[in-house]
Structure formats: structure tokens, C-alpha cells
């Protein structure tokens, strides 16, 4: 029979509570709203809407953030990054299940389009972890 600690850990994992809390706390630090409680209530409403509609839930990164990451990784504007840069950037964004064989991996030239597609899909998967099962 499972201990109370194991039951609690199983519950947290089943409902993806850790991921939800990590994202909400990150959003608090990033946005620093004047009224944190109201902000969290609004974010939880967005999570509920995401569950009902299948639309991506709240997250920190948008297209302009991804463009900024690419600008840092490619200061000479070659329009591609290396696989190592691609992988590290996705990990930094909080994406854990990274596509290890994206387009361009054999040439070690990951295009902006490929990076952004993989990042958006990874962020959507992360955001969808909030969907109640």
C-alpha cells in the first residue's frame, strides 16, 4: 500500500500541479502585477478556458520573445542556428521533450522557421499539461 507521501506525489503528477504552479510563479515574476491574486485568478480562468476550447493556455513566450532568442543566438543574422544552440534554447524555454531530429540537424543548420515551429509546439505541449485528465 502506498504511503501518504507517495499518494500525494502521484496526485501532483497525475494533475500536473507542479507544472501549473511553476508556470504561474514564473508569470508572477515576469509580469509583476499590481494585484497578484487577481492576476492568478485571471490566469486560472485562462487555464479553464484552455481546457474547454483546446486553445493554448497561458505561457510567458510569444513570437517576439522567440525572435529575441534567435537574435541572441544568431548575431550575424545567418537565419539559422546550430543544433546545440537549438537544443539549449528549447531547454532554456522550459521545453523538456525536444525533437532530436528537426529539419536541418544533419547539416547542423536549424532554420529560424524550424526553431520557432518546434518552440511553439513545445510550449503548447507544456501549456496543455494543465488540461485536466
Automatic annotation (TrEMBL):
<dbReference type="InterPro" id="IPR049760">
    <property type="entry name" value="DD_EFCAB10"/>
</dbReference>
<dbReference type="Pfam" id="PF24548">
    <property type="entry name" value="EF_EFCAB10_C"/>
</dbReference>
<feature type="domain" description="EFCAB10 C-terminal EF-hand">
    <location>
        <begin position="64"/>
        <end position="124"/>
    </location>
</feature>
<dbReference type="InterPro" id="IPR039879">
    <property type="entry name" value="EFC10"/>
</dbReference>
<dbReference type="InterPro" id="IPR056587">
    <property type="entry name" value="EF_EFCAB10_C"/>
</dbReference>
<protein>
    <recommendedName>
        <fullName>EFCAB10 C-terminal EF-hand domain-containing protein</fullName>
    </recommendedName>
</protein>
